[in-house]
């Protein structure tokens, strides 16, 4: 079993590396975007930046625990299915063994020379033939039963191996959970110590009127760059799709030409002996566009949104992303600073934050002023923004459905209250989310 366990560990590690490799390019682009935004600002010490590292680490530890819990549920469900299958197979094998024992016992009682005795008995040949056929059927049934029993025994062994692998995997997950919980507690302690140390500095920076404006400018710059990145990806996907379509079209044309040449050659061969049927030779015409089109294998198209419903049809049907008290609305004044560009919903720390609609996560990082931030692209240049989270539970590139849990509410980014900052934007411009949500 140790070798099987080691192989399973290696497989899990391989799968994780493959998943991380898929995100590596996108993460690199996002890191470049953040670096460009930071470099355009004047260098200034900010308390939130010092807290940012611990807030990001807390978010990552919580996300790892969330992912491990989901993996644990899936593995436990798989183990339950394997145990049920093991019970079913064991019952089947027991029944087959009973039947086989009965057949062997009956054969032993009847003796092994039945066929010879029948042939030498001088009895009616028709009766002998019937008896021999009956014995043949019994032998075939016995052979099939033995083969089925052998296959089920092998299935039991394979099932037992899979079940052990699942148990090993659960133990591995449990160990990772223990390590992540330890890391989370350490990060929380570090964050609390830093927060106490920087509280006066952070309070003073919150009151600075220009700070909020710079935060909003930073977010606007990020969204603008993300929009360009999404558009570049959309064009690249469209170009790749067109290339695949042209390649398929070329293959279809080549196949049609080959088929036509083969058919013409065959027709000529058939007409050579008689030379009396010139009409039998096919007309040398190119295949119609319709016939070529019918040869094509459909390719999944790159749509603008890529989601089930276009986002702009959801106006008035969305639900707020978190349960809590709406303490700041779009357009209301924010002290001495600029007006709110979104909503602030006060909620208990750790409350589930859900995606308001289906889309793709395009940003899941810490950003000054907004803490642990999630941005979802819904297509057609619509985006939703979820800030000040305690933990981000999705990664850039993940697809989400309406109502999926994407984060947990908190007060990261230097916010005084626990809750969620929520924005909706179209073509980079913020608009009032309350016009889009169910208010009753």
Automatic annotation (TrEMBL):
One Pfam family it belongs to: Peptidase_M23
Coiled coil: 139-201
Annotated region (Disordered), positions in chain: 1-24, 33-52, 237-296
SUPFAM superfamilies: Duplicated hybrid motif
Keywords for this protein: Coiled coil, Hydrolase, Protease
Domain M23ase beta-sheet core: 340-433
Keyword Coiled coil on entry: yes
InterPro entries associated with the record: Cell_wall_metabolism_enzyme, Dup_hybrid_motif, M23ase_b-sheet_dom
Gene3D superfamilies attached to this UniProt entry: 6.10.250.3150, Glucose Permease (Domain IIA)
Molecular functions per Gene Ontology: metalloendopeptidase activity
GO-annotated biological processes: proteolysis
PANTHER family found in the cross-reference section: MUREIN HYDROLASE ACTIVATOR ENVC, PEPTIDASE-RELATED
Protein name per the record: Protease
């Amino acid at each position: 079993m140790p070798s099987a366990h080691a192989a399973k560990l290696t497989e899990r590690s391989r799968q994780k590396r493959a998943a991380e490799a898929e995100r590596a390019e996108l993460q690199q682009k996002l890191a470049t975007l953040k670096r460009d935004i930071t470099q355009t600002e004047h260098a200034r010490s900010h308390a939130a930046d010092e807290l940012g590292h611990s807030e990001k680490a807390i978010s990552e530890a919580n996300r790892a625990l969330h992912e491990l819990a989901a993996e644990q549920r899936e593995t436990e469900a798989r183990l339950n299915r394997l145990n049920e299958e093991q019970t079913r197979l064991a019952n089947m094998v027991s029944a087959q063994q009973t039947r086989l024992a009965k057949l062997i016992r009956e054969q032993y009682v009847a003796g092994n020379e039945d066929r010879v005795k029948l042939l030498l008995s001088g009895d009616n040949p028709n009766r002998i033939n019937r008896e021999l056929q009956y014995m043949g059927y019994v032998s075939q049934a016995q052979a099939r039963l033995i083969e089925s029993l052998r296959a089920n025994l092998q299935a039991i062994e394979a099932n037992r191996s899979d079940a052990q692998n699942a148990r090993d995997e659960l133990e591995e997950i449990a160990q990772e959970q223990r390590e992540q919980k330890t890391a989370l507690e350490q990060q929380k302690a570090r964050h609390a110590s830093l927060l106490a140390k920087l509280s006066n500095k952070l309070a003073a920076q919150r009151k600075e009127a220009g700070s909020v404006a710079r935060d909003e400018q930073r977010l606007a710059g990020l969204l603008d760059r993300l929009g360009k990145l999404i558009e570049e990806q959309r064009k690249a996907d469209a170009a790749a799709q067109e290339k695949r379509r042209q390649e398929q079209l070329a293959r279809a044309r080549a196949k049609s030409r080959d088929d036509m040449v083969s058919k013409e050659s065959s027709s000529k061969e058939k007409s050579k002996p008689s030379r009396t049927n010139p009409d039998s030779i096919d007309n040398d015409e190119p295949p119609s566009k319709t016939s070529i089109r019918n040869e094509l294998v459909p390719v999944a198209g790159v749509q603008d949104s890529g989601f089930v419903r276009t986002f702009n049809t959801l106006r008035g049907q969305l639900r707020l992303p978190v349960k809590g008290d709406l303490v700041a609305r779009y357009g209301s004044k924010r002290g001495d600073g600029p007006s709110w560009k979104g909503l602030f919903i006060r909620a208990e720390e750790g409350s589930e934050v859900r995606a308001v609609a289906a889309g793709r996560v395009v940003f899941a990082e810490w950003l000054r002023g907004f803490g642990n931030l999630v941005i979802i692209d819904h297509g057609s240049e619509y985006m939703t923004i979820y800030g000040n989270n305690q933990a981000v539970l999705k990664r850039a590139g993940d697809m989400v459905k309406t109502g999926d849990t994407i984060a947990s509410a908190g007060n990261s980014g230097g916010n005084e209250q626990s809750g969620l900052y929520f924005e909706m934007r179209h073509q980079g411009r913020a608009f009032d989310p309350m016009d889009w949500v169910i208010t009753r």
